[in-house]
Structures are given as C-alpha cells and as structure tokens.
Amino acid sequence: MTYQLNFSALWPYLPELLSGLLITIELTAIATLGGIALGIVGAAIRCSHTSRLDKVILRRVWGGYVEIVRNTPFVVQLFFIVFGLPALGLKLSAGQAAVLAMTINLGAYSTEIIRAGIQASAKGQWEAGRVLGLSRSQTFFSGDFYHRHCSAFIQHWSANASL
C-alpha cells in the first residue's frame, strides 16, 4: 500500500501558514531571551553561598519555583496562565500568555542547566582564581570559560528546542 501526499490543497493558504510561522518564531525568540535572563539570575541565586537569612530564603523560594515548574506539565502551566490569571483579574492576550508561560518554563530549566554548568567547574579553578586575587565573576569569565560551560549551553539549546 502506498500513500501519495497531495499538498496542492495547502498552496492557497501559504501566506497564512508563513504568517503563523513568523509569529511562532517571534514568540519563541522573546521567550528564549526572557528564559535565559531568568535562568542566569536564578543560577546566580542558587549558587550563592552566603548564610544571610534573606539570601537563604531567596535561594529556597527560587528552588521551590524551579521544582514546581520542572515537575508540572507545560500544558498545566499554560492553562493556569491562560485561565487562572484572568480569574485573578490579570487579563493577557494569547501572545502574552504564551510568552509568559514559555518564559517561566524555560527560566526554570535554564536555572538548573546553568547552575549545573557552574558547579561542573573544578574546585581547583575557583581556588586558583581566589589565590590570584580574582573576584568570583572574574574567575567565572576568565580563561577557559568556553570549555567549562560549553556542555551547559548545549543542554540549554536542546531544552529550548523542546518548546
């Protein structure tokens, strides 16, 4: 049995399909930028090692956000934003709701991916930076930044492709 796919019925709708593709790319790009920014902030919070009470509380709250988002299906998160937020009085357009849902979801995954990349760095590199008098940010961005964080960025883009 052979099947012949006939796409000729779609040709009249090609402009609408291309318009939808453009909207999809725009929404994904905006959500990706927001998710990466959220992930960088979250990874910095999760990797901080201060014992101040406010930092500890912030680290635990952010950890709760990451665990809740990563352990619930994306469709549930999207439904909560699309139907739950208007019930609370916050009206969003379909595009805004989609971007918000994807940003929140990608932010949680990005937090863990970037945090894992940071913690994958050998402790000797952090100690060497401290001995040289470098700050944590200087140590983070010095020398072999690419090699230390390449796997984290590859993981991040594969997670982004799942959107």
UniProtKB/TrEMBL annotation:
Domain named ABC transmembrane type-1: residues: 21-163
Domain of life: Bacteria
GO biological process: amino acid transport
GO cellular component terms, A-Z: ATP-binding cassette (ABC) transporter complex
Pfam families noted in UniProt: BPD_transp_1 (PF00528)
Subcellular location: Cell inner membrane; Cell membrane
Keywords on record: Amino-acid transport, Cell inner membrane, Cell membrane, Membrane, Transmembrane, Transmembrane helix, Transport
Keyword DNA repair assigned: no
Transmembrane segments: 20-47
Coiled coil stretches, renumbered: none
GO terms of molecular function: transmembrane transporter activity
Topology class, membrane: Multi-pass membrane protein
InterPro entries according to UniProt: AA_ABC_transptr_permease_3TM, ArtM/GltK/GlnP/TcyL/YhdX-like, MetI-like, MetI-like_sf
Major location category of this protein: membrane
SUPFAM superfamilies: MetI-like
Family affiliation: Belongs to the binding-protein-dependent transport system permease family. HisMQ subfamily.
Name by which UniProt lists this protein: ABC transmembrane type-1 domain-containing protein
Protein's organism: Yersinia enterocolitica W22703
